[in-house]
Amino acid sequence: MTVSDKGSPPEVHASASDAGQFIHHHTEFPTTWLSRVLDAVISAIGKSASWLWIVVTGVIIYAVVGRYAFGMGSVTLEEVQWHLAGAGWLLGLGYTLVTDDHVRVDVIHERLSLKGQAWIELFGLVFLLLPFLVLAVYEMIPYAVSSWEQGETSQAPAGLPYRWILKGVLALSFGLLIVAALSRLLKVTALLFGFPKPIRVESGETKKEDAS
User: Fold this and answer.
1) What quaternary structure, including any partners, is listed in this protein's UniProt entry (predicted)?
2) Amino acid 95: pLDDT
3) pTM of the model
């Protein structure tokens, strides 16, 4: 190894460099006009749902102070806490997928080229994630409708009514996950097959190169 070799950057896979002008800076996959629209919708819903955690924190503080400072426990406040926390978590699932911020534990995936990773994503989305999500939504919609028709309420004394709302959010969250998974699938097929046509994403480095 020569001295110049020691200071050289690590080798980049050809498949990644070929798609470099189309690669999104975070997801590493090309983006398309439709996936950008879907991502924007899912991201807006996820960011809006994140405000629920502030409300949850306020309710928890109020309940704790009321219980330990004034001896005023409330079943209603306890149920409000887990209803809001559940809704915030569920509505944020799609956001984690479109931003690729979910937990990955596949040690093989990260060692593959960009196209190798894309093939794994393709089979995972088509044969694992999407069938599961479709089946889940198929089962959850009647689950929420049945709760609404029965006027289901909490079984706890002074518990919350309208239990169908939370069950409806459960079905909605998996529906949003389907949209997020389809957006991810569009990015994968854009890289592997060139369809839909990928679009260029301008980054700070790209603009700097253009200016020079």
Assistant:
1) The complex comprises the extracytoplasmic solute receptor protein and the two transmembrane proteins.
2) 95
3) 0.79
Confidence of residue 201 (pLDDT cuts 50, 70, 90): low
List all residues 6 or more positions away from 113 whose beta carbon is below 8 Å from its beta carbon.
13, 14, 15, 16
Range of the domain at 176: 29-101+111-193
Is 9 part of any domain? Answer: no
The one-letter code for the residue type at 197 is K
CA–CA separation, 190 and 185 (whole Å): 8
Report residue 73 as tokens.
Answer: 């426990």
- Average pLDDT on 41-67 reads 95
* 208 domain-assigned: no
Number of separate domains in the chain:
1
Q: Does residue 7 sit within a domain?
A: no
Q: What one-character DSSP code corresponds to residue 155? A: S
What distance in Å separates the CA atoms of residue 173 and residue 171, rounded to the nearest whole number? 6
Mean pLDDT of the chain: 83
State yes or no: cis peptide before 157, omega within 30 of 0. Answer: no
